[in-house]
UniProtKB/TrEMBL annotation:
GO terms for molecular function: RNA binding. SUPFAM superfamilies: RNA-binding domain, RBD (SSF54928). This is PTBP3 protein. InterPro entries: HNRNPL_RRM, Nucleotide-bd_a/b_plait_sf, RBD_domain_sf, RRM_dom. The keyword Lyase does not apply. Pfam families: RRM_1, RRM_10, RRM_5. The gene is Ptbp3. It comes from the Eukaryota. Keywords: RNA-binding. PANTHER family: MATRIN 3/NUCLEAR PROTEIN 220-RELATED. Residues 1-40 are annotated as: Disordered.
Length: 513
């Protein structure tokens, strides 16, 4: 029967099925997740577990809709499970990649998503199938062309984002203080929060919050809109902003750029102490979409005295990334140094001796590690989908002197190619996700358009467009056939000597030609 459909786990997700209640299984699932599991081959069919009984079919289907069209659906309601069939394997892979970093929720309850062993869903005609088909049609009809497939998790051939990664947040019934720290605490559960600006308009508290990718904004809106932060007050009303990004000039209690810790502080100090009055009686707790999950500690407890909020502006202290599913025939430490160096200063790289499809990349600090991970994870490199996660190691150890490692470990701590070694460098303002359009600089005046086109064509790239963007021809944009081609070209040509003491500088561009 359909309730016996097996699945296999990825990204440390459990693969066992249970027909007990989701709440009772939560702690057991956490224990089962501790053991690493070998990922199975990607499939268009995804297995979803711990679905709340009151969740609708449309809500379950909406878990997959940001990444592509859901073509088939099967729900096992008594087992709190479901199967989604996506329109492509790439769309399914992007969703699994996303869930390896950010936890999906339905009706305030955590759910688990993993690949199924089945390559497609097939079952005979039934009244249930008719209902499932109607639910699919309803979701697809209400979201035509609205896939927000994030570049950080997409693979070649995926959909391009159509929604904004900036949310406009209105807080109604404001009885208690809502700070940047509180908003970060709540919204960072759904993705990497880059910037927050809070302001007042028409006597209403409002905030603009920018995620690293549109899909995080989509899930945050889907799960948080209409929920209250504190008890029955401070209700969130969330919509998509028309802004493409936010610009923060000062880190203060009204604005914060979590990617630019070097920005000067504005008026006042960073607000780590917030005096708050008791909510109901002597004590009350934040009730967020996570408060109903067993084992989830309330973010802030209200007491009659002022209390210190946790320093949620900091990111995990680990600056070492585990990069897996690499092509061992093509990847080198230098290639990883150049690629990850777009998003931070790479200090060391180590390709595993026994498993050369895995590597460790040590960034200058944990913030740069988070930025690199959020931008590069899920992209296709040399024919494989790159996976980037935080490593359990805090530092990459160099091999003892005299010990051979076949050049698999490299130290780049003093490399002159670091893009961010100068405090306040303008390069911090030009960090963009991988794209098919590259920004080129430091081009000598004697180099022509044909010279540059031939240079990139020799790397195997398809040059679709090229133009100089300065009169002296020192800078240019080049559009290649795909994002993967742009990744390969950047690795091959960044710092390439072009003559006349000029070394080519290559980075990703947000512009198109």
């Amino acid at each position: 029967g359909p309730d016996k459909l097996p699945s296999c786990g990825v990204s440390n997700r459990p693969s066992t099925m249970s027909n007990s209640t989701p709440a009772a299984d939560y702690e057991n699932d956490k224990k089962k997740f501790k053991a690493d599991r070998s990922p199975c081959s990607p499939s268009r069919v995804l297995h979803i577990r711990q679905i709340p009984t009151d969740a609708t079919e449309a809500e379950v289907i909406s878990l997959g809709s940001p990444f592509g069209k859901v073509t088939n659906f099967l729900r096992l309601k008594q087992k709190y499970q479901a199967f989604l069939e996506m329109d492509s394997e790439e769309a399914a892979a992007a969703l699994v990649n996303y869930c390896s970093h950010y936890t999906p929720y339905l009706r305030s309850q955590r759910v688990y998503i993993q690949y199924s062993e089945h390559k497609e869903l097939k079952f005979e005609s039934s009244p249930y199938q008719a209902r499932a088909k109607a639910a699919l049609q309803a979701v697809n009809a209400t979201q035509p062309g609205s896939h927000v497939f994030p570049s950080a998790y997409a693979v070649e051939g995926g959909h391009q984002p159509h929604r904004s990664s900036v949310l406009l947040i209105t807080v109604e019934n404001l009885h208690y203080s809502v700070t940047i720290e509180v908003l970060y605490q709540i919204f960072s559960k759904f993705g990497s929060v880059l910037r927050i600006i809070i302001f007042t308009r028409n006597s209403q508290f409002k905030a603009l919050l920018e995620y690293a990718d549109p899909v995080s904004a989509y899930y945050a809106k889907m799960n948080l809109d209409g929920h209250s932060i504190y008890g029955m007050c401070c209700t969130l009303r969330i919509g998509f902003s028309k802004l493409a990004s936010l610009e923060v000039k000062y880190n203060s209690d009204r604005s914060r750029d979590f990617t630019r810790l070097d920005l000067p502080f504005g008026d006042g100090q960073q607000p780590l102490e917030v005096p708050m009055a008791p909510a109901y009686g002597t004590q009350s707790f934040i009730t967020s979409p996570y408060a109903g999950v067993p084992g989830f500690a309330p973010a802030v407890a209200f007491t009659p005295v002022a209390m210190n909020l946790p320093d949620v502006t900091s990111v995990p202290a680990n600056a070492v990334l585990l990069v897996s599913n690499l092509n061992p025939e093509a990847i080198t430490p230098h290639g990883l140094f150049i690629l990850f160096g777009v998003y931070g200063d790479v200090h060391r790289v180590k390709i595993m001796f026994k498993k050369k499809s895995n590597a460790l990349v040590q960034m200058a600090d944990s913030t740069q590690a988070q930025i690199a991970m959020s931008h590069l994870n899920g992209h296709k490199l040399y024919g494989r989908v790159l996976h980037a996660t935080l490593s359990k190691y805090q530092i990459i150890q160099l091999p003892p002197e005299g010990q051979k490692d076949n050049g698999l470990t490299k130290d780049y701590s003093n490399s002159p190619l670091h893009r961010f070694k100068k405090p306040g460098s303008k390069n911090f303002q030009h960090i963009f996700p991988p794209s098919a359009t590259l920004h080129l600089s430091n081009i000598p005046p004697s180099v022509t358009v044909e010279d540059m086109k031939n240079l990139f064509a020799n790397t195997g790239s398809t040059v679709k467009a090229f133009k100089f963007i300065q009169k002296d021809c020192r800078m240019a944009l080049i559009q290649l056939g795909s994002v993967e081609e742009a990744l390969h070209a950047l690795i091959a040509l960044h710092n390439r000597y072009l003559g006349e003491e000029h070394y080519l500088r290559v980075s990703f561009s947000k512009c198109k030609i």
